[in-house]
Amino acid sequence: PACPYQAREMHPWKHKAVVHEALCQGCGACVVACPNKACKLRNLTPSHVLAMMDAYLAEV
Length: 60
Prior knowledge:
Layout (H helix, E strand, L loop, with lengths): L7 E3 L6 E3 L9 H5 L12 H14 L1
Antiparallel strand pairs: 1-2
């Protein structure tokens, strides 16, 4: 799974990601891993952007 906090899972019949807000740490790993770029993060702070960049660079 893309989320190290298990904050996202696929809905069984809607085939859409469900976000468990209480588990989400805003690291951005889901945004980097999403193949169709449908994942978005709300309320981004500079530290969130840096975490997303770190997650992306770790895969490259």
